[in-house]
Structure formats: structure tokens, C-alpha cells
């Protein structure tokens, strides 16, 4: 892995932060609580078994309804509450009523997000976030599942953080102009990732959302991204992010080593050309982390690398929006939150289309997959296959 330091990224980003001196007054907040809070969410129903060629091809991280013995699946049933409690304090809570608590009980209420933002200045360009929230690593990780085209996030970037979230404290900075652009990219249907600042720096546990910290180490993360608005109104966003920490992995009895604390370091680059009407999205990360070695039956610190590229076209009609897309992903590395830091080699092509009508979305996606995923329980496991996947989504 090429050497990098979070400090160097921090210095570069802070220099850019200090160049902005514009300020605007904070918008007045209503004294009525019901005017300060908003309510929303979405529900996703999936079926993955059409034209399936291998029912043993599964993905624990992606979708637990893939493969043998599975049928219709409520992938998400989200409900969220958010609003400004005062001119400087913003609160956000999100629950998922499709959280699986066991192999036989798929639907229960689970906490996804619970955080408060404290604005440090009048225009809210600087804020500190306290609580459980998404960590600022990777565009697709921070992009809501309700906005994403592909049904699942890519393995390479998503393997950085279980459920994309953790418990910690994060600092976000973005001038008002940039915050407005980031908000527009989401609300306009251009598939933005949301407002996670132009610059971010944070400290978090590192074991993943809802999981007890397993060691005495804190993860450190930083990110810088910028949406360039071109003269023709095309928007291109480029970003870089990195984190460093230590992770305690779950071990099987077959694993020959009992040491379960490993270095967990990564750096990633992101490039997004928003679909107006053609679009392109790509991310790639490299790093070092725990990975199971089937030759030695031990989990070892190894190099990892991988990413994805996606092309799309956005057609807007009178009442309907169609977005056909093609996505290819590659990942060679371990997944630290799976048993023994399961070793993966993933090559996958997805060809799909999203149809939007009112508050209803339908995605049809044909997946061509080649996955090797091995741990102490299955030291030899290579699966290939194809399938047609469908998802209906309702936004409220």
C-alpha cells in the first residue's frame, strides 16, 4: 500500500476551509415543534430468484435474500424524524423496521441513525455531529439506498464500514454555496450523496453501528470533496478520503490464530459526473486490513484493493423518469466484520434500469457474478452465476 498520512490531508483541507470568509444569518426557527420537525422514509420490496443459475451464490453483506430457500424480501422499511431544535441545533433519528434479529425473524425495529448537529457559526458552514451516523468514507456509502441505482453497494468501498455507520464525533465544513449544491444534487433526482460537508474530520469507535467497541483504539477519518459546476450547468464531484484504526474481528474455531486485533487503514478516491443526461460514477480504494488465508487457515494483515465504475443515462419525460445503467465492480481483500475476516475476490457486472413514477420506483437488474469467499468454515468456496433481480420502492 502506498504511504499516506491523514495529517497531510487535514492540512490541505484546512487551508481550503480558511479561504472562505462569507457568512449568512441562520434562518429563524419556528417556536412550534410540529413546524420544526419533518417525517419521511421509504420501503423496498425485493425478489431475486428470476433466471437464477446458481442458488448457492450468496452475499452476506449485500442482500440476505439471495440464494436457496429465499423469496420475497422486505429489504428496508425506513422511517426518519429530523428538524432544527434551535437556530444552532439540528437533530436526526432514523429507524429500520426490516432489521433481522435472527435467521427466522427478519422484521424488527433497529436504530440506524441518532445524532445531533451543533452549528459553530451563524451560516452553519461549520458544524459538529455527535452520535451514530454514516462515516464520511466513499460517495456510494453515504448515498442513501433510496437514491442509489444498483440494488446493493459495491463490496470494495462498503467493506470499510459495517452498515456504513458508527458512533463518534465528526466535524463538517462547507460554505453556503457548496451546501446548496450538495442539497440540490439530492433533491433534484440527480442521485447525490447528501450534505456531508466539503471537508470532514472525525473520531469513531470503528467496530460498526450498534456494536460494542472491542478494543481501546479509536478510528480517525478525514475527507475532502468538491462539486464543480461547469458553465453548461454540468456538475462534476471529485473527492478523496482516508481512515486509520484497529479492528477486532470475529473468529471461527477453525482459525489457527487467536489474535483478533488488526490494523485497518484505507484511502479512496471518488469521481462523479452527474447524469445530465449522461453520467459516470467511479470509486477505488486501497489499504491494509485483516483477511483470512485458506493456505495457512489463519487471518493475517494483507493488502486490499478494489472499486467500481458505473455509466448511466437519465431520461425525463412528462410524468416518468427512466435511468438505464451498467455497473462493474472488483474487490480483492477481506471483510473485517465477517467471520475470520472472510477473504473475497469479486468480479460482478450489473445491467439495469430504474423507472420513477410519482413516489414509486421500480428497478430491474440483471447480475453476472463471479465470487470467491472463504473462511475457516468454508476454506474453499468459489461461486459463479447470473440472476434477474427486481425491487419496488415507495417513498413517503
Task: Compile the SSE list and pairings.
Blueprint: H1 6-18, H2 33-36, E1 37-50, E2 73-84, E3 89-99, E4 108-119, E5 126-134, H3 139-142, H4 155-158, E6 165-173, H5 176-187, E7 199-204, E8 219-229, E9 235-248, E10 261-273, E11 278-293, E12 298-313, E13 315-316, E14 320-335, E15 342-357, E16 360-374, E17 382-395
Antiparallel strand pairs: 1-2, 1-17, 2-3, 3-4, 4-5, 5-6, 6-7, 7-8, 8-9, 9-10, 10-11, 11-12, 12-14, 13-14, 14-15, 15-16, 16-17
Structural write-up:
The chain is mainly beta. The protein has one domain: Porin (Beta Barrel), CATH 2.40.160.10. The chain contains five helices and 17 strands. Residues 1-24 have low confidence and may be disordered.
Question: What's this entry about, in short?
Answer:
The chain has five helices and 17 strands. The protein has 396 residues and is mostly beta strands.
Features:
mainly beta; 396 residues; 52% strand; 16-stranded antiparallel beta barrel; single chain
Give the count of structural domains: 1
CATH topology, anyone? Porin
User: CATH top level?
Assistant: Mainly Beta
Major β-sheet annotation: 16 strands, antiparallel, barrel
Poorly predicted runs: 1-24
Helix content: under 10%
CATH homologous superfamily descriptor: Porin
Name of the CATH architecture: Beta Barrel
Structural class: mainly beta
Estimate the mean pLDDT confidence: 91
Strand order of the largest sheet: 1-2-3-4-5-6-7-8-9-10-11-12-14-15-16-17
How big a fraction of the residues is strand?
over 45%
Q: How many whole angstroms does the radius of gyration measure?
A: 21 Å
Distance between the termini: 44 Å
Please state the overall shape, judged from the principal axes of the Cα atoms.
Answer: globular
